Amino acid sequence: SDVREVLSAAYLLSLVRQVARGMEFLASKRIVHRDLAARNILLLTKQQVKIADLGLSRDAYEEGLYRKTTGGRLPVRWMAVESLSHFTYSPMSDVWSFGVLMWEVMTLGAVPYPGVNNHKVLQYLLHST
């Protein structure tokens, strides 16, 4: 059978709801994930997901928000505007990433902002209508 028949909207929403609950838990522990994306969600069973790859996570409340000061590759298609422009991260930047993750899930894994070069994502977000 077609994968779209098996993966109903209700099922997909139940998965992203679990991610939202997991992100709520992380926020309650003062953790900003900073790399929330479908690639970092583990499907343990048909009905249970877990958030993985906390390698970029930080305590955002040491100074109110976390500012990235070192080099390294960044998941630009999942980053909030303030993270792309000022390298600052907060629970709200994780909310942005969660929105992108929801889009990924509901489109069954499509790449965010198709046709936009990674180096142009910020301009696209600032100037698209």
Would you kindly provide a written description of the structure presented here, covering whatever features stand out?
InterPro entries: Kinase-like_dom_sf, Prot_kinase_dom, RTK, Ser-Thr/Tyr_kinase_cat_dom, Tyr_kinase_AS, Tyr_kinase_cat_dom. It is found in: Endomembrane system. It catalyses: L-tyrosyl-[protein] + ATP = O-phospho-L-tyrosyl-[protein] + ADP + H(+). The structure is a single chain. It contains five helices and six strands, in the order H-H-E-E-E-E-E-H-E-H-H. Helices cover 41% and strands 13% of the residues. The chain has helices at 3-6, 9-28, 81-86, 91-106, 121-127; strands at 31-32, 41-45, 48-51, 58-59, 66-67, 88-89. Helix 2 runs antiparallel to helix 4. By secondary structure, it is of the alpha+beta class. The longest helix is centred in the N-terminal third of the chain and has 20 residues, at 9-28. Strands 1-4 form a two-stranded antiparallel sheet. A two-stranded antiparallel ribbon has the order 2-3. It has one domain: Transferase(Phosphotransferase), domain 1. The chain starts with a helix and ends with a helix.
